[in-house]
Amino acid sequence: MASTKIGFIGLGLIGGSVAKAIRKYYPDCNIIAFDKNRETLALAVQDGIIQTACSSIDKNFRECSYIFLCAPVAYNTAYLSQLKDIMGPDCILTDVGSVKTSIHEEITALGMEENFIGGHPMAGSEKSGFANSKAHLIENAYYILTPTEKVSKERTASYRDFIASLKAIPVVLDYKVHDCITGTISHLPHIIASTLVNYVRDHDTKDELMKALAAGGFKDITRIASSSPVMWQQICLKNRANISQILGGYIASLEKAKASVDSGNEAELYSLFETSRDYRDSMPNSSAGPIKKQFAVYCDIIDEAGGIATIATILASNNINIKNIGIVHNREFEEGVLRIEFYDEASSAKAVQLLQKYHYVVYET
Asked: I need a surface site. Which of 19, 39, 269, 337 has the fewest CB within 10 A?
């Protein structure tokens, strides 16, 4: 990789984190970047992440082996048009967006299918910008790859191996399947959480007793409603066909539940809660029983031998019982690599103090 040239269009949280991961594992490669924010480019040069700061998308990108498109979706079409006449025939072009259909359609329209492999690192943070990026953000996180039909299997395999070498977990999917899956397990829950919060807001008492008493399970299942309104507005617009269909199906399931309640159908009501409980409990790292208050913290940790054991030892030696501990693979809307769950709030608070004392970066839910 010493002679490999890699380009970035946009150096925000995700672009910056991918660039830092590449610099960490391939210190001798040549990384160049374009970003509208000159301060971001200056910081990236100062930190030694990139060698060349580009003021435009120009011939500097011509000899790149990989180009990561990490700019806001609104700019993608214009950037793709510029890259088409600059990219070399062997270059792999990719992106980091959470909706794939729109960019795949743009790639097809521009005749760039032989070079494009869509990408979606399922990691993120409520914070944004290069200043908050970190090399281990994508570590142990699922990284979805959506190659076009015209990209060779050899190119896809090579790129998959490259992503794996950055310590992410590559998963190859058809882009339409990706948007259907994320629409169901990510986009729909965000809409549900947001509408549920707004429903409580709109039906609260004059003295806001609902707001005052909302805690435990309610706050847990609506936590994701605190995400960026702009980001979710754009996701809904870009994946609206899938989301509309999924919402239709979900509304039908709500109507079925309402009918069961209206008719007092004991069997259907029991089945509703039994099947949902059993399926949820079969998911990795899920806790048993109904949704309730969870006392969990998230902690940044480097993937190295004994890393988790060290944290477990620190907590155990201070008589703190751990309920559950594990790597968070889908961190698109959660901070921290390691999730540690406790039995009570006191243990959680004590754990935060201890881990911070040992210089771990800790995020409380």
From this structure: 39
